[in-house]
Design brief:
The chain has 269 residues and is α/β, with parallel strands linked by helices. Helices cover 37% and strands 22% of the residues. The chain folds into two domains: 188 residues, 3-Layer(aba) Sandwich (Rossmann fold); 57 residues.
């Protein structure tokens, strides 16, 4: 019997497209928040890592050679094939972060889902992904991911609805009008609902070839992680290396496009 289509499946086809594999391959630097997380882990050579949504290998290039063991996973076979070609000697597997059956319980120390990959699964499946990330971690292990920030949605809306680049000529204006129509078509109720604490939004990513991206207010995400028994929750702005305690009141109003979340599973005993 054929598998039912889930919302994220459309994004899997997009990520499998060689054009997008090549485009993700152009980005090779760690983001400042990711570097800070890496620096906070202690000696990497003593840690086993699982890198979810590894894409074209941006994070793999930095982490794979440094870790005691490394496993990169992506649900797009084209991304995995690319990583295997580019980084021979390291392990990459096709798999869905919602069900990591082939990864044993308590088998790694650090699990990363970088660059908002988690936002491609809906809010319900996001819980499954977080549970899987926690399951495969040893006690006291570190879980990190980034996610789009609902506080940034007014900027997205303004980008598509209120700005016409008249100074850039008729082509640019026509493109802006087209994108504005596409934005309203894909997000028919969003403007009426603003401001929102969490929403699935088609924000024009990959030229609107997306089934929608999860945006969540940082304090809600922190609360959800704590509700799952995850500890020591901290946040970082995507472009800064400073950790912010998840309990700090500033978290609710962080304005950045996306936020990194870092937390730990409960220690042993
Ligand atoms: C925005 S790209 C980021 C790629 C890479 N992590 C980076 O930072 O350059 C998101 C990646 O997550 C993958 N992805 C999305 N949902 C996934 C899922 N449920 N399971 C595994 N991979 C997933 C996509 O195929 C894509 O390669």
């Amino acid at each position: 019997m054929g598998r039912m289509t889930k919302p994220g499946d459309r994004d899997r086809a997009t990520y499998d497209d060689p054009m997008f594999v090549a485009s993700y391959d152009r980005d090779r630097a760690l983001q400042p928040a990711e570097q800070a997380i890496a620096d906070s882990l202690g000696p990497l050579g003593q840690l086993d890592m699982v890198d979810l949504g590894v894409g074209a290998g941006r994070t793999a290039r930095h982490f794979a050679p440094a870790m005691r063991s490394y496993l990169g996973i992506d649900y797009a076979p084209g991304m995995v094939a690319h990583c295997r070609r580019e980084l021979p000697g390291f392990r990459f597997e096709v798999g869905d972060a919602c069900r990591l059956d082939f990864v044993a319980d308590a088998s790694c120390d650090f699990v990363l889902f970088s660059y908002n990959g988690i936002d491609h699964v809906g809010f319900e499946e996001r819980g499954q992904v977080l549970d899987e990330m926690a399951r495969i971690l040893r006690p006291g292990g570190t879980l990190a991911f980034s996610s789009h920030n609902a506080n940034f949605l007014p900027e997205i809306v303004a980008r598509f609805c209120w700005r016409l680049p008249l100074q850039d000529g008729p082509r640019a204006v026509a493109r802006a009008l087209r994108d504005s129509l596409l934005f309203r078509y894909h997000n028919p109720t969003l403007l009426r609902r603003m401001p929102v604490a969490q929403a699935v939004v088609n924000d024009g990513l990959h030229n609107f070839r997306s089934s929608g991206i999860c945006y969540i207010r940082p304090d809600l995400q922190v609360r959800e992680l704590r509700a799952r028994g995850l500890q020591d929750v901290r946040c970082l702005r995507h472009d800064q290396a400073t950790f912010i305690d998840g309990a700090d009141p500033v978290v609710a109003a962080l304005p950045n496009p996306w936020i990194y979340y870092v937390c730990r599973t409960a220690p042993a005993g």
